[in-house]
Structures are given as structure tokens and as C-alpha cells.
Amino acid sequence: MLLDVLLKIRDEQDPSLVIKFGCRRGRCGACAAVVNGVSLLPCCTPINKDITGVSTVKGLLPPIVPVAPKDCY
């Protein structure tokens, strides 16, 4: 999942990277972020062809509400 990759980057390459997360199952929304202009939940976002070329990751600010994929529950 994208959250795992972000945590690995924080742990191994950039300790200044700040990541919020909670349940890691897509229920709490604590990890909500905007990736390349799209709001999503990194804990439920698989790394695949849809997430190639990530250039920006920003914390989610209201009023944007991410929608968890159905396979996340």
C-alpha cells in the first residue's frame, strides 16, 4: 500500500517526512492525503500503474473528503 511506501521513505531516506495514520484499514481517515491532486487514503491505495509518477503528496485539508475503495473494508 502507498502508506507502507511513505513510511519506508520516512524511515530509510527522509526522517523529516511527517505522516499521520491510525487504523491502517481505511476507517478512520487519519492518513487522508492528496496525491498528484487526487484525494485518497494511502492505507488503502495499492501501488500499481495508477500510482506511478507520484510528484506531490500533501496532507488533506477540509472540505475534501476521500472515498475509501470498497476492497479496503
CATH architecture: Roll
Instruction: Using the coordinates shown, work out and report the CATH topology.
Output: Ubiquitin-like (UB roll)
Uncertain segments are none
* Total number of helices: 1
**Gyration radius, to the nearest Å?**
12 Å
What is the N-to-C succession of helices and strands?
HEEE
The CATH homologous superfamily is called Beta-grasp domain
Distance between the termini: 14 Å
Keywords:
15% helix; alpha+beta; Ubiquitin-like (UB roll); globular; three-stranded antiparallel sheet; 1 helix; 73 residues
Can you walk through the features of this model?
The chain has 73 residues and is of the alpha+beta class. The protein has a single domain, classed as Ubiquitin-like (UB roll). The chain has one helix and three strands. It has one helix at residues 2-12; strands at 33-35, 38-40, 57-59. A three-stranded antiparallel sheet has the order 2-1-3, with no helix packed on it. A hairpin with a 2-residue loop joins strand 1 (33-35) and strand 2. The model has no long low-confidence stretch (mean pLDDT 77).
